[in-house]
Amino acid sequence: MSITNPKQALYEQFAMVAKAMGNAQRLEVIEHLAQGSRSVEALAAKMKLPTANVSQHLQAMRRAGIVTSERDGRFINYRVSDESVLAAFAAVRLVAERQSAEVARVVHEWFHRRDEMEPISRVELAKRMKKGLVTIIDVRPPDEFQLGHLPGAINVPISEIKSRLSLFAAGRDIIAYCRGPWCVMSFEAVAQLRSKGLSARRLEDGLPEWKAAGLPVESGL
Amino acid sequence: MSITNPKQALYEQFAMVAKAMGNAQRLEVIEHLAQGSRSVEALAAKMKLPTANVSQHLQAMRRAGIVTSERDGRFINYRVSDESVLAAFAAVRLVAERQSAEVARVVHEWFHRRDEMEPISRVELAKRMKKGLVTIIDVRPPDEFQLGHLPGAINVPISEIKSRLSLFAAGRDIIAYCRGPWCVMSFEAVAQLRSKGLSARRLEDGLPEWKAAGLPVESGL
DNA sequence: AAATCATTCAACGTAATTATTGAATGTATC
DNA sequence: GATACATTCAATAATTACGTTGAATGATTT
Question: From the list B19, B65, B106, which residue is nearest A99 (CB)?
Fold first, then answer.
């Protein structure tokens, strides 16, 4: 374990990063932080976990250098320290997606035949937004919406989608998005909308990927 | 731990991949396998580890879907199951490189001031190869060389470089490469060559990256 | 069929990881 | 300064990971 040769030392460092990502809870934290910086408490509330638990996961990730923290009043806000972290997350996700039949199975079983929910690409959506042909709904909770969302998107939290189904016009295409490509909420939103005969599709990715692609983002109210 | 909701299940799958990469020995195995398929014994010999140990690491990675195996006679050859695995490895490495001062420090200390060894890029090398301006040396062991190397490269294993220093012409640029960007051998080769007043540089990456970029590879003798 | 050889398995001890609990720390507010 | 509150620390217990050893498996060769 002692650092005797440089090769070993480097591999240890790389392994530390991978190990920090090798936990389901921590990956979920990373996905939340991909939306922007969050306090420990805010993360704990989102994930319905004890604060101390989340705090420890955050510290583990800080030791590996994949998140950083900054005090703001009595809160401590964490953020991913670099886009390379999100790239690594995406790369790991891709491996799982390609290699594991288990992932494909889970997606299939829970998301009601994914092929019927062909996602729309960022590029295609950007084009259609210019022509004003689409209604974009952001199905994330209001606090996340306020911190940043797609231009012109309306916020319909997944919890309220049933009660607001009547508001959507039948003739327009509706595009739903949320946190990322594996975020459950947009799948559910599309399923709900389609069950009412509306034309709905998911955005292929979520807000982080949209921002990362350099496309415009609105924030505030 | 039981798979109750799909989100959790997916994160568990992603975490499994990251966890499989979260070990220094396994990362080294991946780097070896990036060169091509290898038997358990061959890997164990390279890494100077017990066969059973390497076997167990390989099985752990197979469970995560990042390597696959195939029997050939009495050997079992393992290989990385997909390029996405190498991409994930590279992404993890980049995170470590960007975030960890420790990595920068180790590289600095052990590789004798890296800035004096400015690496040459793949693109630049490809250009200069066309003009015939460079001598390319592959400092990996002969067995790896035989399985595939850069066109026109000559094999000078790092162990023999001292005894073959007199063979190099003073007027020509020498480019050394080995397994990948963090492979120690090419750093050492450049240091040796420079100590004799020769003009030597490292290729920025190694053979796997060269292949991945679609550039030509020679094999056999 | 016996021998050989690569790989895997089983069992063991040690170490690391994880979640949980309650106390401690440090900052802002009254 | 006292209080409230977000975060971290410390201690515990349960689980999993890691490396080592020697035996078992499975395919090839003699």
Answer: B65
| Closest-lying nucleotide for A19 based on CA to C1' | C17
Is the Cβ–Cβ distance between A139 and A176 less than 8 Å? Answer: yes
Q: How many angstroms separate the CA atoms of A25 and A27, rounded?
A: 5
Inter-helix orientation angle B6-20/B51-63, to 10°: 150
Do B185 and B140 touch, CB atoms closer than 8 A?
yes
Q: How far apart are the C-alpha atoms of A167 and B115, rounded to whole Å?
A: 62
Contact of A100 with chain B, judged by CB distance below 8 Å, is answered with yes
* CA B60 / C1′ D17 distance in Å: 11
Q: Does A85 touch chain B (CB under 8 A)?
A: yes
pLDDT in tens, B131-147: 888 899 999 988 889 88
Q: Is the CB of B39 under 7 A from strand C?
A: yes
Mean pLDDT across B101-115: 56
Q: Could you tell me if residue B100 is inside a domain? A: no
Residues of the domain holding A187: 116-212
pLDDT per residue over B34-60, tens digit each?
Answer: 888 999 999 999 999 999 999 999 999
Strand ranges inside chain B, DSSP E: 38-39, 67-72, 75-80, 134-138, 154-155, 173-177, 200-202
In a domain, B110, yes or no: no
Q: Are residues A80 and A131 in the same domain?
A: no
A172 and A161 Cβ atoms separated by less than 8 Å: no
Tokens read off for B216: 């030509």
